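Comment thread on ticket #2218

A.B. wrote:
> Attaching the input chain for the structure job we discussed in standup.
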Amino acid sequence: MPIIGDLLTSTMAGLAFVGCAISSVAPTPPGSQPQPRRREVAVNGKRVKTVDVHAHCIVPAAAALINHPLEAPGLLMADTSVRLAAMDAQGIDVEALSINPYWYRAGRDAAAELIRVQNETLVAFCAASPDRFVAFATAALQYPELAAEQVEYAVKKLGFRGVGVAGSVAGEELANPRFHPFWAKCEELGVLVFMHPLGTRELEPSGRLGGSGLLTNTIGNPLETTIALSHLIFEGTLDRFPGLKICAAHGGGFLPSYANRSDAVTRCFPDRVGPLPKKNPTAYLKDGQLFFDTIVFTPEALRHLIAETGPGQIMIGTDYPFPWTSTEVDLVLNTPGLTDDQRIAILGGTAAKLLGISQ
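C.D. wrote:
> Ran it. Output below, let me know if you need it in another format.
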């Protein structure tokens, strides 16, 4: 990646989103608090490299191009010490950074420039601390042909191994045939697609998700993922692109918890389903196309997710800096019924393989 050297000096200069190299811990001055030690995760005495596939950030210079506001201070990385301290405390060795798409309604020229700035900054940041950070590229999916070009450039020129998408594109389903050029390119390049929802915003005006409980997020986010995955199965997108690899945030939403109903509808109402998928819908959860993070909160929920999908489909995610969870390593270690090899795969082995991270 010969352009990284230039990016490190030009793209990162003057931005709030900057990196710093990991340095050794200095001796503790007399009378001061000792520095917390980095947690090293081991399974049966074997050191494991852990990879967090669900960690958020933002590039302020890109967001400023369309006047997008900052959603949370923790998304900024002007000083990475806070983020690294959190990673060290949680036992996270590598974060795979992603940015929730906020640009799907931007015009073509603005979106093209935003994605250029965003991806170049991400790759430069990760190059500054390659042992701690990788990133998912971004793309202007509202312009599918442009998005396909952006992904190809991000992979072949910038060295990305994954790309992030939302659960819908300005109200359009990801299974819409107009997005086929994007999916075809992702399949061709063999990149992991990280799908993060933006919520079911079409329900918000009705008030159904109002009131107590932060339902726009608590229910709305996993619901959008459930809808998106269901369409990708039933509209034949996964059949058309069998080499696709998609990681769905928040344990795949509600789909893995009730996927057998999707099998049942193909038996009970075959004339109303449309063209039947090539396999039972539950089979798509296990066949190596769909992956899921561990943000399901309890060992029993993770055990059930694994039972429905398989241990090889699961990767840890923390949702940093949002405080949904900070104990994903312990969740995996404490979930019963897993072999050592399965725990190692979930903690980092599967993500490292998909994202090209050395183990």
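A.B. wrote:
> Thanks. Noting for the ticket: Residues 49-355 form a domain with the TIM Barrel fold (CATH 3.20.20.140).
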